[in-house]
Amino acid sequence: MMTSSIRYEYPLLRVPASLIIDDWSVVCLNEQGEVEYKKMRKILLSLLDLGVKGKLSLVPCIVSSSGEILGYVNKEIKGLPDNELAETLRLIREKAVKYFDITPEILTHSFVVDTESNKTLSEKEWEWSQSQDLETLTKYIAKALEILKDIGVVANGVTSPCDFGREVEGIYARAVLEAEKKIYGIKLTWYFLNVERCSRRVTP
């Protein structure tokens, strides 16, 4: 029986941990459907103060519960003063990128946007995605990446809203890669979709 003296140890003898933040953006909508931005800024500042690292979603397009497009993070958002948007984006560009992989949670995390007409459809993104082809998914994902690129963020992967693309995961994975190549010239990428819910410990 062969034995080995090789062993692995955790970095700095500590258990590595990362924080995964989903559904975040520069604003949120309260129960009355009103835009709130101070709460979202406070969350971001708290994370930066902790010095924790991980993945942070940044939803590029804000849509109301009725399907109205309120705006895009690279342009303007109804109910959010321009100077407040600029300040949050500055924090993201100058500080958050040092701690987090920042990804789009595709485009809206709710209703699908027709990228030609810039109007929402009745379907939610995760429902719609399950029946799309490579070209359509690539174009849609590229739109989200393009918005983040426009605000100075390099998103080297994407986060799936709910189970976006699960039933066509092979096509979805290819679409993410093609979109990353198109927008950033990135040839190695990733997507956040599947979660291990049962194991107490998951080996990376």
The number of helices is 5
Count all strands and give the number.
Answer: 11
Class of secondary structure makeup:
alpha/beta
* Outline: globular
User: Strand share of the residues?
Assistant: 15-25%
Low-confidence stretches: none
**Mean pLDDT across all amino acids:** 92
Report how far apart the termini are.
28 Å
Radius of gyration: 19 Å
H and E string: EEEHEEEHEEEHHEHE
Question: Based on the structure given, which CATH architecture is correct?
Answer: Alpha-Beta Barrel
**From the structure provided, what is the oligomeric state, counting identical versus distinct chains?**
single chain
CATH fold naming = TIM Barrel
Number of domains: 1
Per CATH, the class reads Alpha Beta
Largest sheet: 3 strands, parallel
Instruction: State the helical fraction.
Output: 25-40%
Key descriptive features of the protein:
204 residues, alpha/beta, TIM Barrel, 3-stranded parallel sheet, 5 helices
Tell me what the structure shows.
The chain is of the alpha/beta class and 204 residues long. It contains five helices and eleven strands, in the order βββαβββαβββααβαβ. The protein has helices at residues 38-50, 82-99, 125-129, 134-150, 169-184, and strands spanning 19-21, 28-29, 35-36, 54-57, 61-63, 69-72, 100-103, 111-114, 119-124, 157-159, 190-192. The strands form five sheets. The chain has a three-stranded parallel sheet with strand order 1-4-7. Helix 1 packs parallel to helix 2 (82-99) and helix 4 (134-150) packs across helix 5. The two termini are 28 Å apart. The model has no long low-confidence stretch (mean pLDDT 92).
